[in-house]
Amino acid sequence: MGIRTGAQYIDGLRSRTPEIWLGGRRVMDIVNEDNFRQPIREIAKLYDMQHSPEYQDKITSICEDTGERVSNAFIVPKNYEDLMKRRTLFEVWAEATFGLMGRTPDFLNTTVTSMASSPDFFAQYNPQWAENIQNYYKYIRDNDLFLTHALINPQNDRSKPSHQQKDIFTHLGAVEETSEGLVVRGSKMLATLAPITDEVIIYSFPGFRPGDERYALAFAIPIDTPGLRILCREPAQDGKRPLIDHPLASRFEEMDAVLVFNDVVVPWDRIFLYNNCEAANQLYSKTGLSQNTHQNGVRGLVKLKFATQVAARVADAIGVDGFLNVQTQLGELVQSVETIRALLRTAEREFEVNARGEAIPASIPLETIRGILPKAYPRAIEVIQTIGAGGLLLSPTANDYQHPELREDFDKYYGGREGVSATERVQLFKLAWDLCGEAFGQRLVQYERYYSGDPVRKLGMFYSNFKKNNEFTMVDDALKGVIESEVEVG
Ligand SMILES: Cc1cc2nc3c(=O)[nH]c(=O)nc-3n(C[C@H](O)[C@H](O)[C@H](O)COP(=O)(O)OP(=O)(O)OC[C@H]3O[C@@H](n4cnc5c(N)ncnc54)[C@H](O)[C@@H]3O)c2cc1C
Hints:
Layout: H1 6-14, E1 19-22, E2 25-27, H2 34-49, H3 56-59, E3 60-62, E4 69-71, H4 80-96, H5 105-116, H6 119-123, H7 127-143, E5 147-150, E6 173-177, E7 181-188, E8 199-202, E9 217-222, E10 228-232, H8 249-252, E11 257-267, E12 271-274, H9 277-286, H10 292-317, H11 324-349, E13 352-353, E14 359-360, H12 363-388, H13 398-402, H14 407-413, H15 422-436, H16 439-450, H17 455-469, H18 473-489
Parallel strand pairs: 1-10, 5-8
Antiparallel strand pairs: 1-2, 3-4, 6-7, 7-11, 8-9, 9-12, 10-11, 13-14
Helix pairs in contact: 1-2, 4-10, 5-7, 10-11, 10-12, 10-15, 11-12, 12-15, 12-16, 12-17, 15-16
The site of flavin-adenine dinucleotide (FAD) has 20 residues, from strand 5, helix 16 and helix 17.
């Protein structure tokens, strides 16, 4: 089939009824559910962009295997030009959603592409796993599917490994092998956008200890597989609030969910890893799984740029951007954006071609972005809150604003600096409040902190790896000079 349209994506959603729970009831018609209608539209628009003359050549390519047009997320980059094709897709889709939707289809499609380009890793443990991941890659590429993923065990007792939790099937684990497949039971989180995806892929961060074998799993199944239950969090919006009152929250909410597997049968041809702690611990570092940090970096840059522009426009609208304290805050945000932009460019320019001939962006600058964003984005939000101050809380609803008895007051008292009308200021402040005050905006902050794991442990790991590959010899050189001159003087 190759690239889908938005309508084909929506038809896919309509064709099945996964077990989705929201607000105490089962959702039977996801496409017409208030909470999901608009986010589905936003994803559909991305699929439509693949067919638009303006974007098609930028974000899709002809597949060498099939001759069909596929998303650039499915390219296995061989050189800088290929990397740029993929980056353009990340950028175009991030700009279409202002970076506010992190788990658009490109994210996991790139991830699976990277996994499938490492068949040797899987084959050393089980040749069937290598074949399975490669077939799965072709399947999602040729059908242009949208995946969610759930890597994390439910947050019960983090001081104990999976096999020591209260119930051995609290964390998702293998129950038994049958002729149809592997039966799995337990829970995983935090499957963003799960209700409106086609498939779910399960794998894990490293950290498996002896005794955890049954939890060492990687597989993918359709989102409506029997026994798979999707428990949505409380929505940040009800899907009925007017666009004019909540220009961002009403459109871009990504629902998050806990997945419960009630004896789900995973067909053997969908198993990529099982019952092997060593393989599960190595999966991340040995399969280029972390390649999705490139998508994270590009999208994060767009989101930070957007928040920076919102802060600047708020400051300008109320005439405070001539004050030094406001300028230093805005300057700080611009410098954060420029830092991320430079790091991305470095990562792309300093790409390496690995033993399999795959071009991969340099990991240190990408990991550095991963370390900076969890601080830079919350800071941008804090700056919007600080500059917008009390005014952020006082925006009237569109109904208030348009009421004939009130309109004169709004026009008189809600305008901004000379040249900024009340309508312009109120609209801007509503948008800013969605980003920095609403539950929607707070989730976006939490996303930036945690979307790819715990930033604290990630930074620790980053330093350990850095130390392994760097000898800090400048210190020796400096001391050597001192010792040599001592000897000469002596
Ligand atoms: C909005 C949002 C969307 C997300 N989307 C997805 C998704 O689509 N798919 C997915 O799989 N995941 C997703 N994640 C989950 C993300 O991967 C996890 O939140 C992240 O890995 C952190 O895990 P946790 O939330 O369980 O925190 P925990 O691991 O429980 O950590 C809680 C606190 O304890 C500390 N801590 C815990 N254990 C240790 C330790 N061993 N050593 C030191 N400190 C420790 C942490 O630093 C942290 O402060 C999402 C998260 C958010 C917030």
